[in-house]
Amino acid sequence: MVFRKLPGVSASGMGLRLSQKFVFLLFLSGLVTLCFGALFFLPDSVRLKRIFLSKTEVQAVTVGSDNDVREHPKRPGKEQEHLRGMTPAKGDSKQKTTSADHHGASSDAFSFKKFQKCLLKATLGTDGGRPADPQTNERREKVKEMMKFAWDNYKRYAWGKNELRPLTKNGHIGNMFGGLRGASIIDSLDTLYIMGLMDEYNDAKEWVQTSLDLNSNGEASLFEVNIRYVGGLLSAYYLTGEELFKSKAVELGEKLLPAFSTPTGIPRGVINLGSWSWGWASAGSSILAEFGTLHLEFVHLTELSNNPIYKEKVMNIRKLLNKIEKPHGLYPNFLSPVSGNWVQHHVSIGGLGDSFYEYLIKSYLMSDKKDEDAKKMYYTAMEAIEANLVQKSPGGLTYMAEWRGGILDHKMGHLACFSGGMIGIGADDGAPEKRQHYLDLAAEITHTCHESYTRSTTKLGPEAFRFDSGAEATATRLSDRYYILRPEVIESYMYMWRLTHDPKYRDWGWEAVEALEQHCRVESGFSGIRDVYTMTVSHDNMQQSFFLSETLKYLYLLFSDDDLLPFEDWVFNTEAHPLPIVRKSYHFFLSSFPL
Ligand code: DMJ
């Protein structure tokens, strides 16, 4: 086409003069700016932002007080891909949903006040669980003094490190938590709070505020970070309502998500928290007690963040475990995260298997008894455990053996002693004809574990004890004779006390206090010992963080009234961090997440 030249009209462009073009362009750009800006002043601006920004760019972050939820645009890119789970695992929903997908008006935010109103009882009881009986109260005060002593020494010599080395009076970092620090602080928050050690609690809180760095590089154990850090922060939040703990827990939870980017969605055991380009590390199989011990914390991460992704991840694990064929109904300890098959047939209620079973029954209880799958899986597993692992020694002690492809290893680890408490809390919801049986079994296992303590010279139990070659609840190997301040036996005393009120459990707990004082207390803290069968003890120079979060907390609860952290409202994660039962009444997005 040919443009003809008209008089008075410029030949350039569309036949407009330069000045006319300039005015037109000015008008046009003004109009565009006005329209675009107006969109963001409309009342439903959040939805409009979603039209212009991709889903992943809008990430909800909860800040400030109750119901105060703001949305912060996040830098899109690779990191967000990791956050969303990258490779969808079999059985995952089509798209990994972000907070934004379920995040509408601020009324959707988790309300601490509403949550508190839904508790059936006061969290700390009428008088902080103070027992009326003077002797019990004196014992409780002693435990509190032990906590203060352990804490003060940690603060003095190891502040900000993961654990205290009480003999050399310095801090220990170790390699379980990658670059994360302050494991003893996070593990202690709730213990300090329930004991009313408020100055110490405030110091711990301040450290979280100023010094807890979650952007740390280094390989960390997904399991340990979850049970200690995520669990500790969640508990601290639910006990205190401090938003700081909630936002840290959710922030850390996000960093754990890349671990699930495997073909099956079964997470690897090791994760690098600092690197988004490399979600998980180390090849090999995943461990049942590790990937099976995420459920409680992840359900609460979904509760608090309003982001279903955490619950989806653990429900996927649940589904896979439910479906997979189990030898004799038992769950072996190793599973390939690539093929989703068992790697070998070693079954144990102690290390490698333990807290998977614990989380089944606790998931059921924490769901306000709505999680029927967890219930079914727990009681079916219990049947298999009873049929294959539970044994009676010639001396009449009931114990849990380990199973290696059909051959029994007549050994019980200290870790397996948590099962007295677990079977106890599960007794009530078993088949009516089995309830008393479960309670009896729980008492028998707890009795056996107590025997492993009383049969040692120090009255502390070994890491593992055996029932073969004439041995009955004693360690036969030098390498099994150590005690590292573990809680499991005392944990079972605490549960059995609450369930039966048989005073022997408090007496047994007191025996443990005396033994700890005599053999593990050193000038600057508490230390594990290398051999429970000798009075000339050799200390291992380590005050484990679980001593503060579990051993001392369970002892304190054992000597408290039942109304301190009542079971009607709380379940304890495997690191003894209390998490509330999830009730429909405070569940604000029921339609999205049926319980
Ligand atoms: C704790 O970290 C937890 O109880 C875990 O489940 C296993 N063991 C230690 C304490 O022994």
Quaternary organisation of the protein chains: single chain
Helix proportion range: 40-55%
Low-pLDDT sequence parts: 1-14, 35-107, 276-282, 589-595
The largest sheet is: 3 strands, antiparallel
- The counted number of beta strands is 21
Distance linking N and C termini: 69 Å
Hetero groups in this structure are:
1-deoxymannojirimycin
Q: Strand fraction band?
A: 5-15%
Radius of gyration: 28 Å
Q: How many helical stretches?
A: 19
Write down the overall mean pLDDT. 85
Q: What overall form do the CA principal axes indicate?
A: globular
Briefly note the structural class of the backbone: mainly alpha
Strand order of the largest sheet: 5-6-7
Membrane topology: Single-pass type II membrane protein
Organism: Nothobranchius furzeri (Turquoise killifish)
Function: Involved in the maturation of Asn-linked oligosaccharides. Progressively trim alpha-1,2-linked mannose residues from Man(9)GlcNAc(2) to produce Man(5)GlcNAc(2).
GO molecular function: calcium ion binding; mannosyl-oligosaccharide 1,2-alpha-mannosidase activity
Describe the protein.
The chain is mainly α. The protein is 44% helix and 10% strand. The strands form 9 sheets. A 3-stranded antiparallel beta sheet has the order 5-6-7. A 3-stranded antiparallel beta sheet has the order 8-9-10. It has a 3-stranded antiparallel beta sheet with strand order 11-14-15, with no helix packed on it. α5 runs antiparallel to α6 and α8 packs antiparallel against α9. The protein is globular and about 110 Å long. The chain binds 1-deoxymannojirimycin. 1-deoxymannojirimycin (DMJ) binds next to α19.
